[in-house]
Amino acid sequence: MDSRIKQKKTTKTRDLKQTLTNELKDKTILITGGAGSVGSALTKKILEYPVRTVRVLDIDEHALFKLKRLINDSRLRLLLGSILDKDRIEMAGNEVDIVFHTAAIKNIEISEFNPIETVDVNINGTINLIKMSMRDKPLKFINISTDKAVEPSTLYGTTKQMGELLTSWAGEHLHGITKFASIRLGNVIESRGNVFEIWEEEQRMNKPLSVTHPEMARYFFHINEAMEFILGCLPYVERGEIFVPKMKSYRIEELAKRISDKHKTIGLRQGEKLEEVLITSKEKKISQETARMWIIKPYQNGNRKKLKY
Q: CB under 8 Å to 82, separation ≥6 — which residues?
């Protein structure tokens, strides 16, 4: 029985890889925020396929330099620029086939203290990319979102919720070549600024590990799992869907105990929740459920009016 299950899983993996090979072959890819944690991992993963080029657009010059040293591939194009610069993204998006939009201001504390800049980048930047897609007509536009967009309690979460709504609106109402969708991820363990990075630094300095609250819980998965999920959704993008992976929730304090016996409680940050939600009960009613994800379909079968975030 175990061997049959393993064989079935291997077959599915092989089939998906072939599907993605067909999907990505000879394509030009644009990844905004592509020098960040998720963006750079996505760049590296996509270059495993027979794409024509991968254009990485980022405002961080040093991060682009580091990415070039990490990935030695003639198909990689490093573009320095902001998603707020309409002329720059117009050049970046010229003759692009697939757009992965990962660029955002993500840090909760920084975004709360810099609301105008956060709204500008996370909302207006997304609008700029949708407008670029209207003109340049890529085949697909994938907005990378977060579980903090669900019933948001922070400015960051609210801007990412708006990004989902804008992308779903584009998928329903822009009747051109481009297919739009969002992918809503939980916490990626290897991303920059995550709690594990903070704990590693604290442990190195022989300090107690910072825990915001004993009952706090978060959804986590590894960056390779995130990449597999993002690319695995690509063939199913049609009409403004939101793809949500089924992830496991972990109590932060329990994770800290696996690393060290010394902890300190620092308290919740402004607007921070004890627990995040991947998908609401109302969203589940308008979703297709599979073994590994929910596919929220906010506009299909007249469901738009039923969807309240």
A: 59, 88, 125
Give how many domains the chain has, as a whole number: 1
Type of residue found at 254: E
**Phi, psi values for residue 221, rounded to 5°:** -150, 165
Q: How confident is the model at residue 11 (pLDDT cuts 50, 70, 90)?
A: low
Selected residue with higher pLDDT from 5 and 99: 99
Edge-to-edge strand list for the sheet holding 76-80: 76-80, 53-58, 28-32, 98-101, 140-146, 179-185, 241-245, 293-296, 287-289
Kindly state whether residue 17 falls inside one of the protein's structural domains. yes
191 band by pLDDT with thresholds 50, 70 and 90: confident
Q: 159 in a domain, yes or no?
A: yes
Instruction: Work out the burial of residue 19: count CB atoms within 10 Å of its CB; fewer than 13 is exposed, 13-18 middle, 19 or more buried.
Output: middle
CATH code for the domain in which residue 33 is found = 3.40.50.720
- Look up residue 296 and give its two tokens: 């929220």
Q: Which DSSP state fits 275?
A: B
* Torsion on CA atoms 267, 270, 276, 277, rounded to nearest 10: 160
Reported pTM: 0.89
Domain membership of residue 186 (yes or no) is yes
Closest residue by Cα to residue 284 from 252, 244, 254: 244
Q: What is the pLDDT of residue 307?
A: 37
Residue 263 counted as domain residue: no
What mean pLDDT is predicted for residues 56-76? 97
Q: Distance between CA 165 and CA 159 in Å, rounded?
A: 10
What is the average pLDDT score of the chain? 90
> Alpha carbon of 175 to those of 123, 178, 253, 297: distances in Å?
22, 8, 48, 17
Name the catalytic one among 27, 106, 140, 148: 148
The yes-or-no answer on residue 17 being catalytic is no
* Domain region containing 181: 11-190+222-246+280-306
